[in-house]
Amino acid sequence: MQKKHGQETIIAHCGRNPEQHYGAVNTPIYRASTILFPTLGQLDAKDGAKLRYGRRGTPTTHSLEDAICALEEADAALIAPSGVMALSVVLMSFADQGAHFLVSDNSYGPTRKFCSQLLSRFGVETTYYDPSIGAGIEELIRPETRLIWMESPGSQTFEVQDVLAITAIARKKGVATAIDNTWSGGYFCKPILQGVDISLQAGTKYISGHSDIMLGTIACTASVYERLRETYLRFGVCVSPDDAFLAMRGIRTLGVRMRQHETNALAVADWLASRDEVIRIMHPGRASDPYHDVWKRHFTGSSGLFGFVIRETDRTALARMFDGFTLFGMGSSWGGFESLMVPSNPSVYRTATQWSPGGQTIRIHVGLEDPADLIGEIEAGFARLKSA
């Protein structure tokens, strides 16, 4: 879909073709493996058919691809059954023999493990770089460098990368770029417009919005689509039409949810900044954040995920604080309507840079609850921490 309308209008209408489905507003759930061809001639010409076999897509999954393409303002899109599957497809697509990758040091743990534990076995070398490197990335590029991987902000430490500077260098050097865009939901940031070749998300998070499906999305430029598509097909990647349908439903409310997540999270972050227990807030949407200026050049808003650091404490005291929560859940993932909070230790993932915040790092996802209730719950948690 060409961008003729505002973003809210686009996400309300993208991926919908009621006239092709008997007037149904939403594309129905097509569960299919076999696709029948009425004549031998059409069977012989199936390479030109959009519907060929269920694994290659159905009207339901194609609708979601079209919607992701419109959301991210990309030339093409692919969907996968998880965020990790999406990143695996991207990384494998550039894993030529003897290839070299540059990966941001704040990247999602499974991204690093895929490079260090799997790709290394096939002779692909990975160099991890400081996420604040900007145009300095040029010094790390080699003749065999095939991909620069970014994550902005980092999902545990929230550094914001100078994507515009990095993509300018990458294009000059002929190196492909990819970014994990999950934090923005594809709503607050459009990496393709900033020169990135591939923008991927764990659609499990904000695109779904309801913590009930697994999904990965890959939006890309035309220049890399066939390479990605070939890897995608060889791995037999396919998505349940039921999950695709739910993801489409999530997209319709993405704008409303993202703006509320932003409002709620900023309210909680500002309150945390006033507390003696807290020694650091990691939220690039706040004017006091060291990455705020870079963030403003790349993002139009902030999501519900951020981090903070409290004064050093032991695990027993931390358990007193966390075990009493009723509104904040403890668990993997984020991006749903509900709030989550977990202690973390990003230092175990760092090799190019050091993470020494001087206290206990905590990752928080602020959901759609009343922020006053969430603040009250954290305040009570701090009281339990102090009493312990």
From TrEMBL:
It catalyses: an S-substituted L-cysteine + H2O = a thiol + pyruvate + NH4(+); L,L-cystathionine + H2O = L-homocysteine + pyruvate + NH4(+). Keywords: Lyase, Pyridoxal phosphate. It holds the Pfam family Cys_Met_Meta_PP. Its cofactor is pyridoxal 5'-phosphate. Pathway: Amino-acid biosynthesis; L-methionine biosynthesis via de novo pathway; L-homocysteine from L-cystathionine: step 1/1. The keyword Lyase applies. Belongs to the trans-sulfuration enzymes family. This is Cystathionine beta-lyase. It comes from Rhizobium wuzhouense. The gene is metC.
